[in-house]
Design a protein that fits this description.
The protein is built from nine helices and eight strands. It is of the alpha/beta class. The chain binds the ligand Cc1ncc(COP(=O)(O)OP(=O)(O)O)c(N)n1, 4-methyl-5-hydroxyethylthiazole phosphate (TZP) and magnesium ion. The site of ligand LCLJCK34 has 16 residues, from strand 5 and strand 7. Condenses 4-methyl-5-(beta-hydroxyethyl)thiazole monophosphate (THZ-P) and 2-methyl-4-amino-5-hydroxymethyl pyrimidine pyrophosphate (HMP-PP) to form thiamine monophosphate (TMP).
Length: 220
């Protein structure tokens, strides 16, 4: 198992004018593997606008830029990839369209969805929600056993999402999450987004350095 675990940053649900500076500040805070632009129900023009503004900031720092929900638009705009949920269109078609780019798939708390996504060619599977969150209404609760099983059996990276903070992330890291996806932990951090990124990275490093809790037994 690759012991590394990295931060996967998702934009706030709404972006105000001048958000570019907040993103730059966040990325100054420490390691970020990728940035997902997630503007639910925003007009296409707004998504295009923010992609053109934010993608160069991310890519200049070697942070992959992923678009949520829309694989054709991600391909058209030259994004590094897309994240699709179970209701976000044709996954296999998106895989073809995003050949050579990153495609991540929401798998909620389901081994079956994750294996299907893996067989389809997903670059990562996302499990959640691990904790209560006010960022999105969630209907699925994922647990450590799923994460631990996936990471011990599969090579495809796992992203953990949902209410993750610097304070609660250690068990996810120790269960084998390859990435921790967060919104609130960074953008709502009381000392600003750079402090949020720094706190997440410090918590990940501490969890990796700490003695591991016993791994749960895996069923079939
Ligand atoms: C990394 C990551 N994981 C899960 C999601 C959720 O995607 P989805 O289920 O399509 O819900 P919306 O985000 O579209 O509301 C995600 N965006 N990113
Ligand atoms: C997009 C998404 N999908 C499942 S939970 C969630 C929201 C994650 O945001 P936060 O890190 O603030 O809980
Ligand atoms: Mg979606």
């Amino acid at each position: 198992m690759d012991d590394r675990c990295r931060l996967y940053l998702i934009t706030p649900p709404r972006l105000d004018a001048g958000f570019e500076a907040r993103l730059e500040a966040a990325l100054e805070g420490g390691d970020v593997a990728c940035l997902q632009l997630r503007l639910k129900d925003a007009p296409r023009e707004e998504i295009i606008h923010w992609t053109r503004r934010l993608m160069p900031i991310a890519q200049a720092r070697d942070v992959a830029f992923l678009l949520n929900d829309d694989a054709p638009l991600a391909a058209e705009l030259g994004c590094d990839g897309a994240h699709l949920g179970q209701s976000d269109g044709d996954h296999a078609g998106a895989r073809t369209l995003l050949s050579g780019r990153i495609l991540g798939i929401t798998c909620h708390a389901s081994r079956h969805l994750a294996m299907t996504a893996g067989e389809m060619g997903a670059d990562y599977v996302a499990f959640g929600a691990f904790f209560p969150t006010s960022t999105k209404e969630t209907q699925h609760v994922a647990d450590l056993e799923l994460l631990s099983w996936w990471s011990s059996v599969m090579e495809i990276p796992a992203v953990a999402i949902g209410g993750i903070t610097a304070e609660n992330c250690a068990p996810l890291v120790q269960a084998g999450a390859d990435f921790l996806a967060v919104v609130g932990a960074v953008w709502n951090h009381p000392e600003g987004p750079a402090a949020g990124v720094a706190a997440m990275n410090a918590a990940i490093a501490a969890a990796l350095a700490a003695p591991r809790a016993e791994t749960p037994a895996h069923g079939t």
